[in-house]
Design a protein that fits this description.
InterPro entries: Aldolase_TIM, PRAI_dom, RibuloseP-bd_barrel, TrpF_fam. The chain is of the alpha/beta class. The protein has helices at about 15-25, 40-50, 65-75, 90-95, 110-120, 165-170, 190-205, and strands at about 5-10, 25-30, 55-60, 80-85, 100-105, 125-130, 155, 175-180, 185, 190. The relative contact order is 0.17.
Length: about 210
């Protein structure tokens, strides 16, 4: 098994971005969905982005945005990667000259193979299906629903924390794992202890 990448999502403060990077995170997520308790403005996101060291990816999370919102955000903050969590079309997702991740909320009837074929995204982020919520629910889903042939393209999210991430990595073998509420002191404020423990759990699983 190769090294599993780690994304810490819902960063709202420059110091949390620096902390996550220092702990070994490969990417940090910046939320541009106004209804989220972890939402940031493009200007705040630019401050966080500027605080990151080289080679740490800044990911912008959107939920059913219009093109103007994404374009204005990119003008203010040089995001490396886009993440779409709503019902966006493949055409919108691919319209910004940036690689992108498409989030899919996984329920018992979700056809992940169809989603992968439809979007052709760089990666699929898989989160728990909770009616009426776009993500960030802190709930897990049945990892056995993920086809083995898709695992190398999967960013696994949904209720991950230091206690279960090792099991998740061993069960799925994902490209990356994504944590938000599971590494927080409170919504939008990350815990250095929990972030470090989460990343250590991933590394221990990678070593078998």
């Amino acid at each position: 098994m190769g090294r599993t990448r780690v994304k810490i999502c819902g960063i709202t403060r420059p110091e949390d971005g620096r902390m996550a990077a220092a702990a070994g995170a490969d990417a940090v997520g910046l939320v541009f969905h106004p209804d989220s308790p972890r939402a940031v403005t493009p200007e705040r996101a630019a401050e966080i982005r500027a605080a990151l060291p080289p080679f740490v990816t800044a990911v912008g999370l959107f939920v059913d945005p219009d093109r103007q919102q994404v374009a204005q955000t990119l003008a203010a903050c040089p995001l490396d990667l886009l993440q779409f969590h709503g019902g966006e079309s493949p055409g919108l997702c691919g319209a910004f000259d940036r690689p992108y991740i498409k989030a899919v909320r996984v329920g018992p009837d979700t056809d992940l193979g169809e989603a992968a074929q439809r979007y052709g995204a760089d990666r699929l982020l898989l989160d728990a299906y909770v009616p009426g919520q776009a993500g960030g629910t802190g709930r897990t889903f049945r990892w056995s629903l993920i086809p083995a042939e898709l695992a190398s393209r999967v960013v696994l999210a949904g209720g991950l924390d230091a206690d279960n991430v090792g099991e998740a990595v061993r069960a799925v073998g994902p490209y990356a794992v994504d944590a938000s509420s599971g590494v927080e002191e409170r919504p939008g404020v990350k815990s250095a202890v929990r972030v470090a423990a989460f990343i250590q759990g991933v590394r221990d699983a990678d070593r078998g």
